Amino acid sequence: MLLHLSISQFTLVDQLELEFGPGTSTLTGETGAGKSITLDALGLALGGRGSAELVRTGANRADISATFDIVEHPSAASWLESQELDAGQEVILRRTIGADGRSRAYINGQPVTLLQLRALGEQLIDIHSQHEHQSLLKKETHLRLLDEYAQAQELAAETRSRFKTWRDHYRRYRTLADSAEEAEARRHLLEYQLKELDQLGLSEGEIESLESEQQQLANAGEILSGSYQLAAFLSGGEGDIAEQLHRALQLLSSMPGQAPALVEVAQMLDSARIQVDEAAATLSRHIDRFEMDPERLSEVEDRLSAIYQAARKHRVQPQELPALQQQLQAELDDIGSPDALERLATDCEQLEKQYRKVAGKLSNLRSKAAESLAEAVNCQLADLAMPHARVELSLQELDTPNSQGLEEAEILISTNPGQPPRPLGKIASGGELSRVSLAIQVVTAQTSRTPTLVFDEVDVGIGGATGDVVGRLLRQLGETRNGRSGQVICVTHLAQVAARAHRQYLVEKHSDGESVFVALRELTNGERREEVARMLGGAPTAQSLAHAEEMLERT
Question: Which of 196, 379, 447, 464 has an alpha carbon within 20 to 30 A of 296's alpha carbon?
């Protein structure tokens, strides 16, 4: 419910603060006083199109904010939470437009996109005017109204969910199917490459071990020859290292009265002799076990050649082959098995069946409710001075099902006998369109999810008793409905409509000689009597005041 509307520097408005409450409120005033400016500003706060021309001349920017009570509107609170916006008992929608045309939008003080502002605004208010952008000219509105009337919102939500799941799986299927040939070729290549690497069977550290062994086998002759020479040098005969150390030790032992330094030398030489003996023994065992193995050398070189060739083929270093093998295996796993496409196609078929089953139930509810809704609207139109108008709610099966179901709904109307029904926007005049909208809102009021309804001059082209019917219907819409407080805001020129309202606001245009500005204020009971009398026939007279008093008392 709209609680407060603040308008600053908007067209002819300098500063305007309005308080609204439950029930039906009317905005009245002389022709050209600027009654629609208030609704235009409200539409801007709800995400309507803005431009620099809307900024009051000489001002830097226009600023409009609207405060709503959402205690009785849980879907709006859920939307705010889903958008990570503050969701208390009230929500403030704000819109600013600079003199340069730049626009900014806010929800509860947080900057948002115009799309977000519009999405929330559409849940809070439904504005019915004579302009083509109003919701009744949109087919999706017709379907929503029908679903609300049929109490099919939950089934419609399940239909949307089922469709989304089916669509997501189908997109995956098409993506896989479109690339199936390419994926199959890639799969064969990966399987071939992995088979080669599996056959190669490269183990951790094998390359380093093979390269070391290959170097040893390739230089076996030089290594063995050098080993023999080293063995002879260590202990191979006269004059070798071992013999020289032995003579040095004998010389030291023959010296009389050895000094401490000589004793230390003797110990070091004895240790050196032991080390030389051990080195000679180790070298001897190496020579005894050493074999010249040309066949093993050939095997090692062949193995290394196969490894190097595989590395060149895949353009990696030999040591990177194990990591490459893991990478190729992971890619093959991602591609999946050859029957993945078939399994996904089967899933899509099942999901489509589930969607069509739920959508079929929704279609049955819509079909039953469409005739009943049209008949109820036609009864209201007869009371609204459109006795010959006939509304039909056409359901056309879609060639391609969508998230809304298996059909689209469209409200058609015939305004004169003998004329075939045609779309609202192509046949109904502005006044007729407003009255059709009013009739539909009256019928669907108990199921409507929109708490605030706004009507801009729904009384165009009517008067007398019909005007009194319009006023009664608008007041009825403003009463508590479906357990929630109703709220209607209406711009009217008709006294019968104004008199039926719970409260009335007067719009006046003033001038200080230099500029023009619009003011708006709520009328007291006495002021309402004078305004209704003016609406009946110009300057109030005793007779018109009495008539106005009588009309106000009937409410």
Answer: 196
Q: What is the mean pLDDT of each run of 10 residues along the chain (555 residues)?
A: 92 87 89 79 89 90 93 86 83 93 92 91 78 65 88 92 92 78 79 89 85 73 69 71 79 77 82 84 74 72 86 88 86 70 88 96 95 91 85 92 93 86 75 76 72 78 76 84 79 89 89 77 90 85 88 82
- Are 77 and 69 in contact, with CB atoms under 8 Å apart? no
The Cα 371–Cα 411 span in angstroms is 11
Extract the tokens encoding 460: 């165009």
pTM for this entry:
0.59
**Cβ neighbours of residue 28 under 8 Å, at least 6 residues apart?**
35, 491, 492, 493, 498, 504, 505, 506, 507, 531, 535
Q: What are the residues whose beta carbons fall under 8 Å from the beta carbon of 544, sequence distance 6 or more?
A: 533, 534, 536, 537
Q: Measured between alpha carbons, how far is 484 from 75 in angstroms, rounded to an integer?
A: 13
* Exposure string over 405-435, b if 16+ CB within 10 A, otherwise e: bbbbbbbbbbbeeeeebeebeebbeebbbbb
pLDDT tens track for 484-511: 778 899 888 889 899 999 999 998 888 7
Sheet with 390-402, strands from edge to edge, namely: 390-402, 405-414, 422-423
Residue 172 has φ and ψ, to the nearest 5°, of: -60, -40
User: Which H or E run includes 170?
Assistant: helix 153-178
Angle ∠(445,449,455) on CA atoms, nearest 5: 60
Assess contact for 529 and 549: CB atoms under 8 A: yes
Reduced DSSP (H G I as helix, E B as strand, rest coil) percent helix, strand, coil of the chain, to 5:
55, 20, 25
Residue 187: other Cβ atoms inside 10 A: 16
> How far, in Å, are 127, 136, 145, 455 from residue 412 at the CA level?
20, 11, 14, 21
Residue 190 in tokens: 């990966």
Question: Token pair of 79, please?
Answer: 């939307």
How confident is the model at residue 343, as a pLDDT? 83
d(CA 349, CA 80): 36
State phi, psi for 23 to the nearest 5 degrees. Answer: 95, -165
Query: For the stretch 527-536, what's the b/e string if a residue is b when 16 or more beta carbons lie within 10 angstroms of its beta carbon?
Result: ebbbbbbbbb
Residue 474 burial by CB count (10 A; 0-12/13-18/19+): exposed, middle or buried?
buried
What's the pLDDT score for residue 296? 74
Tally Cβ neighbours within 10 Å of residue 253. Answer: 10
Decide if 396 contacts 440 (C-beta within 8 A): no
Q: How far apart are CA 28 and CA 497, in angstroms?
A: 10
Alpha-carbon dihedral sign for residues 78, 79, 80, 83: positive
The answer to whether 463 touches 492, Cβ cutoff 8 Å, is no
Tokens of 234: 């260590």
Question: CA nearest 27: which of 15, 41, 14, 48?
Answer: 41
